[in-house]
Every structure is written in structure tokens, then in C-alpha cells.
Amino acid sequence: MTTMTMTSEENIRFASEDDIESIREVENRAFGIHAYDYLTLKYMVTEANSVTVVFDYDKKILAYATVYFRKNSRVAHLESIAVDPIAQGKGIGKVLLKEVEKISINNGCDRMILETFEKNEAALKLYKNSGYEVKEIIENYYTIPYDGSRNAIRLFKYLRNTI
Ligand SMILES: CC(C)(COP(=O)(O)OP(=O)(O)OC[C@H]1O[C@@H](n2cnc3c(N)ncnc32)[C@H](O)[C@@H]1OP(=O)(O)O)[C@@H](O)C(=O)NCCC(=O)NCCS
Q: Which residues line ligand 1 (CB under 6 A)?
């Protein structure tokens, strides 16, 4: 991989069913034991009321994000975002998040909500630096602990006029 800039939004496109295996590889590398399985990812990409985008570089998927929508709701839900560990810390998470926020606005939403492990420092940094605020802490939200905690932090952001 060359060292040219990797964070252009031109690298982002909508995912299709053909991408699920590559998304699963990114998911496994990024989340380890917390990773979604293939069928869940397939549901997220092809069946849910959702949009999944991928970040391509050199014809390889390095990251993905899925946002869920609900009928008659203006609240979008960031279901998942993951960047391959080989590409983390280069701004890809940030541009991917911005892209799903734009897509959510175009789908009529004015808020994004999401949950993350309370000990997931990288994710919390990404979200807080992108304008998200803590809404609540949800105890024992997750099945498998992350760094000793199963608690989630729910964050939100008003999308209009902030992107
Ligand atoms: C969380 C994650 C998506 C961030 O993606 P990324 O591409 O590495 O993040 P970026 O390079 O865009 O960085 C965004 C900001 O977060 C900060 N950040 C990223 N990783 C960090 C880390 N490990 N520790 C501290 N800060 C970190 C960056 O410094 C940057 O801050 P800035 O806005 O001041 O520049 C990525 O680490 C990941 O895939 N983690 C595993 C899966 C996961 O936890 N997903 C989120 C679940 S809710």
C-alpha cells in the first residue's frame, strides 16, 4: 500500500451483497470476539432498512459503516463502523462517519444515535471529536465484556447544520 492520502470521500461507495465477505474480514479484524457473524452482516447489508457504505483503497475494502433507519422516524442509528486495524488512525473512520451522516440527512433524518462500549476509547474519541454528546450509560447492554465492562454509552448528534 502506498502512502498517498487515504481519506478522500471519493473512496466511499454503497456496499452490495458481493462485498459481504470482505466486510466480514474487516469486521473480524477490527472487532475480534465482538464481531458480527456473516448472517448478521448479510442482514445489515441486504435486508435491513439500512445503508451500508464501504471505504475502498487499491480495490480493497478497508472499512465499512452501516446506518439503520426506521419508518416514520427522523432518528438514524449507527449500527456499526469498523476500520481495518492496518488502516486505523488515518482519518478513515471520520470521513466514513461524515458520509453516513450526510446519507441520513438525505433520508430525512435530523439526529444520529449510536451505542459503544464505555471503554472503547478510540470510538469515543471519534464520536466526541465528530460532535456527538453522551445521552446515557446503559448498564450490561452487551453480552461480551470489553476491557472488563458490558456497559454501553449511548451518544447522539443533531445532524442539521453541523456537517
Ligand atoms: C473506532 C474506529 C472506527 C476509528 O476509526 P479510525 O479510522 O481509526 O479513526 P480516525 O483516524 O478517523 O480518527 C478519528 C479521531 O479519533 C482519534 N482516535 C482514533 N483512534 C484512536 C485511539 N486508538 N486512541 C485515541 N484516539 C483515537 C483520532 O486521533 C481522531 O481524532 P481527531 O479528530 O482529533 O483527529 C476504529 O478504531 C475501529 O474500527 N475500531 C474497532 C471497531 C470499533 O470499535 N468500532 C466502533 C464501535 S461503536
A: 30-31, 81-83, 88-94, 116, 120-123, 125-126, 129
CA distances from 104 to 36, 79, 149 (A): 23, 13, 30
Q: Is 1 in a helix, a strand, or coil? A: coil
Q: Identify the CATH number of the domain in which residue 119 sits.
A: 3.40.630.30
**Residue 3 within a domain:** no
What's the pTM value of the predicted model, to 2 decimals?
0.94
What size, in residues, is the chain?
A: 163
Beta-bridge partner residues of 146: 149
pLDDT tens-digit readout, 125-156: 999 999 999 999 999 999 999 999 999 999 99
Q: What are the DSSP E strand ranges found in 15-162?
A: 50-57, 60-68, 75-83, 111-117, 133-138, 152-158
Q: Which three cell numbers stand for residue 104?
A: 441520513
pLDDT band at 160 (very low <50, low <70, confident <90, very high): confident
